[in-house]
Design goal:
- The protein is mainly alpha-helical and 215 residues long.
- It has two domains: 98 residues, Orthogonal Bundle (Endonuclease Iii, domain 2), CATH 1.10.1670.10; 100 residues, Hypothetical protein, domain 2 (Endonuclease III, domain 1, Orthogonal Bundle), CATH 1.10.340.
- The chain is 60% helix and 0% strand.
- The chain has twelve helices and no strands.
- Helix 2 runs antiparallel to helix 6, helix 5 packs across helix 6 and helix 9 crosses helix 11.
- The longest helix is centred in the middle third of the chain and has 18 residues.
- The protein is elongated.
- The two termini are 20 Å apart.
Length: 215
């Protein structure tokens, strides 16, 4: 089966398995998602969702957070790990939003990449979830699963995986496809235990499942 055909089959099966998908970071404004994405590095979304509640109580908007001392931000976000670097990036990012974008998050991919602490994964997430644009978010779930499924072959570098998937995934499906990979990676195609191939909706078409059956 050609990879493009395989991709379309995977998309349809994941749609059926996870009809209601979306970002698991809580936010009601674009700048809050930007903050949460930075905090989520090497931290669970569930913990981030708890920590940001205290952060937003103290700093309810971009202006307040831009004016905050880095040490005060760090005190609140420390439970997410890497507290100093995350607080520094959040502070610098909010200052730029305040000074250059009237407190708003820019809807341009390159402008997002220029913000402190924002890489391709974060920029894609913002473009997809906030602005409704095509987006390929190559987080750890995505990279692990597309290699197992056979959509890419032994590629682990996030940007290379992203570029390979752009050739296979229809743009209008891209954002939800990546969210469904997270759903599937947490529930079935797990990282910390053996994947539950016997329960997988992709069992018949997945490269890893096929290899194990032959074995």
């Amino acid at each position: 089966m050609r990879k493009k055909e395989l991709a379309l089959q995977i998309i349809e099966r994941l749609k059926t398995a996870y009809p209601d998908t979306g970002c698991t970071l809580d936010y009601d404004d674009a700048w809050k998602l930007l903050v949460s994405v930075r905090l989520a590095a090497q931290c669970t979304d569930a913990r981030v969702n708890v920590v940001v509640q205290d952060l937003y109580k103290e700093y309810p908007d971009v202006a307040a957070l831009a004016a905050a001392d880095v040490e005060d931000i760090e005190r609140i976000v420390k439970p997410c790990g890497l507290g100093h670097s995350k607080a520094r990036d959040i502070s610098a990012c909010m200052k730029i939003l305040q000074e250059q974008y009237q407190g708003r998050v820019p809807g341009d991919f390159d402008a997002l990449l220029a913000l402190p602490g924002v890489g391709r994964k974060s920029a894609n997430l913002i473009m997809g979830d906030v602005f409704g644009k095509p987006a390929i978010v190559t987080d750890t779930h995505c990279i692990r699963l597309v290699n197992r499924m056979g959509l890419v072959d032994g590629i682990k570098e996030p940007k290379k995986v992203e570029m390979a998937l752009w050739k296979l995934i229809p743009p209008e499906e891209s954002n939800d496809f990546c969210h469904r990979l997270v759903d599937h990676g947490r529930e079935v195609c797990t990282a910390r235990t053996a994947p539950h191939c016997e329960e997988c909706c992709l069992n018949e078409i997945c490269k890893k499942a096929g290899v194990e059956k032959k074995g």
